[in-house]
Amino acid sequence: MLYLLRELRLPKGSHTAWIIKNVGKDYTLGMEATHSMSFWLGEIRKARRRLSQEPSKNIVREMLVPQPEGRIFPDALVHKLEAVSLE
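and the corresponding structure tokens:
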């Protein structure tokens, strides 16, 4: 969603990828994967903070709340999307 809103670029080919199953595994693979994942999550956090208060961007901000219990629920998401499309 951040990419579609032009708030975040997709990672370049030179960006170190991580294999999610390696996060928390042996030291070499696990540390590299954890570092890459943490870097990318930091980029998402920064992009989330830059989002304006426009209704469509506010919906995306609510989708990206780090704690699952604080994120927008699907029923509220549908309601908000319908409201934005009517404006």
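(Above: one complete record from the training split.) The CA atoms of residues 16 and 84 lie 37 Å apart.
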